[in-house]
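Hi there,

I know you've been waiting on this one. I reran it after we fixed the sequence typo, so this is the corrected version. Both the input and the resulting structure follow.
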Amino acid sequence: MSGRIYLSPPHLSGREREYLNEALDSNWVAPLGPHVDAFEAEFARKVGVPYAAALSSGTAAVHLGLQLLGVEAGEEVLCASLTFAASANPVVHLGARPVFVDAERDSWNLDPGLLEEELAACARRGRVPRVLVAVDLYGDCADYGRIVPVCEEYGVAILEDAAEALGSSWNGRMAGSFGRAGVFSFNGNKIITTSGGGMLVSEDGGLVERARYLATQARERAPHYEHVVAGYNYRMSNLLAGVGRAQLAVLEERVAARRRNRAYYEEALSGMEGVSFMPVPAGSHSNCWLTCILVDPEDFGASAAELRVALEEQDVEARPVWKPLHLQKSFEGCRVVGGENSEELFARGLCLPSGSALSEADLERVCEVVGRVHRRARERMTLANQG
């Protein structure tokens, strides 16, 4: 063994120090500055959306997006269940109530059929939610060909959580561009990182300008500190924006590396009984942020949890897929539409190491552990059947 293999560690481009030194030399080390302006412009061009606001986190972007789309206390907000809690936590922070919609098996993303059924039921009750938080899971875009028309029919705004999908596209259109606003994260495990940070993007320049205003403590244009509404300290620092610019410049290389990871895993593991991969729907160009598999314990001979432990014993970090939010105690009592698919995917799903700096030797080591667990489990099954 040659050291720990992490799930999705940061991968520096080599130019981060140059941009940081630039910021230090100019004394632009506080929030805002030339790197922030440049990062917003470069990012907007990259995702094909005209306006972007650099923020302190992806969660801050979700919070501002919900507020700017009109979510108020006491309302319901539709959310995907199979995702990270940051997609729904800001709903609670605003005093609203998440309603969790199950995943579909064909993509693991939010089920458009269930969404349509729920919106029809909401319309019959006379209380249609203002907003859907749609998630692009593990780098695969949700089925916006079905989701967008349904939301338009019922007047529901889409806040697209593309935190995991920078560099992905669906039918040639970039992730983050399908809703009234899109959200990205630059957390340390994402495909590019600023250490911590996020971005809110939109076709609506007024919405993004309002986001910048609220994110800068809602300070009015005055020589003194004047505030008409309560704002937030959500803007990105010039230092972190410099890191983001260096990272963004190599985005295509990072996507290509993660897609190679998945291709390697597929070639090495696809013929193994009891192993299947997260589907990539037609029209989707995934950044393959994380390569995820399903483990059928009856055919594989061991559960996903047992396989994760075996990998950990060999100093390889793997992780279960997201625990559905409707099963989280923090969202106890929230309504859920469906749920069975998300629960089964959580029970059987496993995320394999997917960092863009993984070597072929690293990938081979992961696959060797998976293969060893499989062989030993199958041998035990054969002996049990013979006995």
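Quick highlight: The first strand starts at residue 51 and ends at 55.

Best,
R. S.
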